[in-house]
Amino acid sequence: MKLNLDITEPSSNEWLEAVMSDFTAFLQDHADCERKASAMAMSFVAKYPDRTEIIPELIETAIEELEHFQQVYQLLSDRGVALQHSIGEDPYAKALVKQCHSGRLERFLDRLLIASVMETRGAERFRMVSEAQEDPVLFRFYKDLWTSEAKHGHIFVKMALEYFPQDQVYDRLRWWLDREAEVIRGLTIRPALH
Questions:
Q1: Does the pTM exceed 0.90?
Q2: For 73-107, how does the pLDDT look when each residue is reduced to its tens digit (9 = 90+)?
Q3: DSSP helix/strand/coil, 25
């Protein structure tokens, strides 16, 4: 059952062209994003250890994201490309997190919904990258990632529904999708996932 909502602002062809014209830079950014996604899932476990209903799925998600990092790292390694020395700031994530509520409970809901929106955006963009590939290995790799990211988009909404009323979750999720569209429209186009 689909739990997340679709993004409201499609990614542009200009974004895809930037990615495909500097695919190595995209892979480096993608590796960073997978490391951050794994850490983000585990940060929920650290910050909300009392939310025992969602801890198993958070751990599973963190492991999956770390496996994705391992796969992207292998793609980089096969090309003789090193990881970046440090993980740069993600202007997309920063702009979203900046709009979170500050209360503990409200921030918990916001962070779950931001995670859903980010995973849903990732699925959309991985689909675009997959469909643009001429290399069958990369086509399959990004197709598999697109499926996984879409699943994660659902998981974070499911987690929110464990603790908050459905109307509240979906009202706030629609609000986040509107904010995310504004952020996407304002970002500089670059060969990066966000």
A1: yes
A2: 999 999 999 998 888 889 999 999 999 999 999 99
A3: helix
Task: Assign 1 a pLDDT band (cuts: 50, 70, 90).
Answer: low
Centre a 10 Å sphere on the Cβ of residue 143 and count the other Cβ atoms it contains: 16
Which ranges constitute the DSSP H helices of 98-165?
A: 104-131, 136-163
Find all residues with CB under 8 Å of 1, minimum gap 6, and list them: 154
CB atoms within 10 A of CB 68: 22
Within 10 Å of residue 96's Cβ, how many Cβ atoms? 23
Whether 72 contacts 30, CB under 8 Å: yes
Question: Is the separation of the CB atoms in 122 and 19 below 8 Å?
Answer: no
Rounded to 10°, the helix 104-131/23-47 angle is: 150
Task: Name 176's Cβ contacts closer than 8 Å, sequence gap at least 6.
Answer: 96, 110, 113, 114, 117
Query: How far is 61 from 41, CA to CA, in rounded Å?
Result: 7
Q: Please tell me the distance from the alpha carbon of residue 83 to that of residue 89, in angstroms, as a whole number.
A: 15
Using an 8 Å Cβ cutoff, are 174 and 157 in contact?
A: no
Domains of the chain: 13-186 (1.20.1260.10)
Q: In the chain, helix, strand, coil percent, each to 5?
A: 75, 0, 25
